[in-house]
Amino acid sequence: GQVREAGEGGGGHLRQGVQGAGGGDGAAGGAQEDPPRDGRGGDPAHRAALSVEQVTKPCGKTVLYLVFEFLDTDLKKFVDGFRKGPSPRPLPTQVVKSFLYQLCKGTAHCHGHGVLHRDLKPQNLLIDKEKGVLKIADLGLSRAFTVPMKSYTHEIVTLWYRAPEVLLGATHYSTGVDIWSIGCIFAEMVRRQALFPGDSELQQLLHIFRLLGTPNEEKWPGVCALRDWHDYPQWKPQHLSRAVPTLEPEGLDLLAKMLQFDPANRISAKAAMDHPYFDSLDKSQF
């Protein structure tokens, strides 16, 4: 079909195309990359969500296509709409549940294919307000071997959703880094403000330790051997309800399972989908 340039991601330009049999507007990115150029194409108000579609060609070769969909807002702007403006109000509980469930489902899909996202944050979660749909965008870091301090556009990468093992210089990490980010995003939907808004790696750790207590070898075996571990001030853990007082007990339980210091103890995205917090949600719509 017809293809035109629609903007660029970290790995080259995205091309917006008219899909054939699949129907609907979308964009397919093959493996080929265009040379970088200045300026960004496309309408910045419409960001692209990414999904991977497996296509088996007649010759028997399987090709993976990256498919981009264009959605109207992101979770940061969506939450800001409830926090600011003439009538500040909390997000409806069912909206929080729905978006969190969709985020867990999308992340479980990534993890099931051996892909870590590594930069989950509200700005990377695209929302279709009409349909109540949330999609994960920007898998730009998922192919990288290190988590950069700056993104390819030289913006500072936000630290607010970064897991403690990454902040402490762990070189090997796993799916738990995404689960930590999801926990921070969950709390932010309920609070309408960031849970751990640090402006440096040290401040970020101290925000975490003040709420969850300072970790030690007993709580998190191996923590003292991490590259950037120091003797931090000793704080006792607070109850999570101090940070998210309006969250129901089942929600607090799920949040606690996501914000475990030891990544090995964090709940998986797949297990999170079965947590009782989602019992009141009609999952068949997803």
UniProtKB/TrEMBL annotation:
Reaction it catalyzes: L-seryl-[protein] + ATP = O-phospho-L-seryl-[protein] + ADP + H(+); [DNA-directed RNA polymerase] + ATP = phospho-[DNA-directed RNA polymerase] + ADP + H(+); L-threonyl-[protein] + ATP = O-phospho-L-threonyl-[protein] + ADP + H(+)
SMART domains membership: S_TKc
Chain intervals for the UniProt region annotation (Disordered): 1-45
Xref: Pfam families: Pkinase
Domain Protein kinase: 1-278
InterPro entries the UniProt entry points to: CDK, Kinase-like_dom_sf, Prot_kinase_dom, Ser/Thr_kinase_AS
Gly residues bias locations: 8-29
Biased composition (Basic and acidic residues): 34-45
GO cellular component: cyclin-dependent protein kinase holoenzyme complex; cytoplasm; nucleus
Keywords: ATP-binding, Kinase, Nucleotide-binding, Phosphoprotein, Serine/threonine-protein kinase, Transferase
Biological process annotations from GO: G1/S transition of mitotic cell cycle; regulation of G2/M transition of mitotic cell cycle; signal transduction
Any one GO molecular-function label of the UniProt entry: ATP binding
Gene3D superfamilies listed in its UniProt record: Phosphorylase Kinase, domain 1, Transferase(Phosphotransferase) domain 1
Family, per entry: Belongs to the protein kinase superfamily. CMGC Ser/Thr protein kinase family. CDC2/CDKX subfamily.
Name recorded for this polypeptide: Protein kinase domain-containing protein
Organism classification: Eukaryota, Viridiplantae, Streptophyta, Embryophyta, Tracheophyta
